[in-house]
Amino acid sequence: MSEEVHAYRGGVVTEPGRRTVIVSSMASDSHTWNLVYLELLVGELGFDVVNLGACVPDELLESECLSRLPTMLVLSSVNGHGYQDGLRVVQRLRAFPQLRHLPIVLGGKLGTGGPLTEEQTAELLFAGYDAVFDDQQGAAAFRRFAAALPGAAPVPVEGA
Fold it and tell me: Which SUPFAM superfamilies does this entry report, sorted A to Z (predicted)?
């Protein structure tokens, strides 16, 4: 992790750099508005965001995660193939010892036939996701998950 150095009254103060989160779609998904939304949401939580964009090949996702070693990887799907693509991608990522403990979450429209079943969600979690967020859940559950990560900014309590 890089550190920023600031001069302060003749002394030097070092501060840890902000933690990085990678936001991405998967190879079959060409949508981008969801990624822009996630970039803003994750940025509000105090993280630096690397947005890989749409139609990201598995190999690029792997190389970016291995080179950056982010605090979290957020995968988003709008085309309804998130369940299928997500299984493949997380299994590939978890095969790398350096990424076995990386928090990886999947969210969005994950099935072409509507919301995922409990069994499908459990399969994604068993395959290696730390959390799965269906598009009908809204952003509150994701916000709580991300806010619990080291380096996140405090999240205001809703209704307070």
Answer: Cobalamin (vitamin B12)-binding domain
Q: What is the pLDDT of residues 5-25, one digit of tens each?
A: 334 444 443 344 569 999 999
Dihedral class, residue 112 (left if φ above 0, else alpha if ψ from -120 to 50, else beta):
alpha
Tell me the per-residue pLDDT of 83-107, one tens digit each, with 9 for 90 and over: 999 999 999 999 999 999 999 999 9
Asked if residues 132 and 124 have their Cβ atoms less than 8 Å apart, the reply is: yes
Quickly list DSSP for 5-16. Answer: EEEETTEEEEEE
Alpha carbon dihedral 34, 31, 82, 27, in 10-degree steps, equals -130
